[in-house]
Write a structure and sequence with these properties.
By secondary structure, this protein is an alpha/beta fold. The protein has 3 helices and 7 strands, in the order βββαβαβαββ. It has one domain. The chain is about 25% helix and about 35% strand. A 5-stranded mixed β-sheet has the order 4-1-5-6-7. A two-stranded antiparallel sheet has the order 2-3. The longest helix has 15 residues. The two termini are about 25 Å apart.
């Protein structure tokens, strides 16, 4: 089974050409080459202080289905990404993260250990 690329918080913006529809501000194509994409939170308001507890719970619920072979995509809200890494480290003693490399225009795979 392919690994899952979890995206704790997808950065988005409103597209005025499509009735204000929210669209990603980053290309997910390079990440999709590494596994199945799973967006957890996808609106800017998801990371707002008044909604943060709910967003944190959604990240925890979704990652409870993960394995140590899955990835965390480092994009969007840094606190939600940090929380996702914390969960993976506490459950699997490692966290596999994808960090954007501007020069190669692809993601670098980093494995963090406790």
């Amino acid at each position: 089974m392919d690994p899952i690329v979890y995206i704790p918080h997808l950065p988005t913006r409103q597209n005025p050409l499509v009735n204000g529809q929210w669209i990603p501000t980053i290309s997910l194509t390079p990440a999709a080459e590494l596994g199945t994409l799973q967006v957890i939170c996808d609106l800017p308001s998801d990371a707002a202080p008044e909604n943060f507890e709910d967003a944190q719970q959604r990240v925890a619920d979704k990652l409870s289905e993960s394995s140590g072979e899955d990835y965390i995509l480092m994009a969007g809200d840094p606190v939600l990404c940090g929380f996702a890494i914390h969960l993976m480290l506490s459950w699997f003693n490692q966290a596999r993260v994808l960090r954007w490399n501007r020069e190669s225009r692809s993601y670098d795979l980093l494995t963090l250990y406790i």
